[in-house]
Amino acid sequence: MIEKTLAGNSIKFNEEGYMLNLDEWNKDIATEIANEEDVEMTDKHWDVISYLQNEFRNNVPLTIRKVGKSGVVDIKELYALFPNGPLKISSKIAGIPKPVSCI
Fold first, then answer.
1. Residue 102 annotated to the active site
2. Catalytic pick among 20, 41, 64, 102
3. Quick one: 49 exposed, middle or buried, by C-beta within 10 A (0-12, 13-18, 19+)?
4. How open is the CA angle 86-58-101, to the nearest 5 degrees?
């Protein structure tokens, strides 16, 4: 476990950099994580983050294909928004665990 201070809050992360408690998440923390990942957040980014969190809360397994068929964003746009690993990076910013589909 790693503990970091983001947006004035002490947040716990696993060894891969994913938050351990979604209840600690807020947009300020997400923005700092995005900055660490070289992602400049736009409204479309926030739409994806919201979608991911909703699916996670509903225990729906996440895959790139599922996100691409969500109506929120297509696969090509998801890669453009989060170029260094679309589902991994977006999940980190969303404060949810790494999806099982990610290696």
1. yes
2. 102
3. buried
4. 35
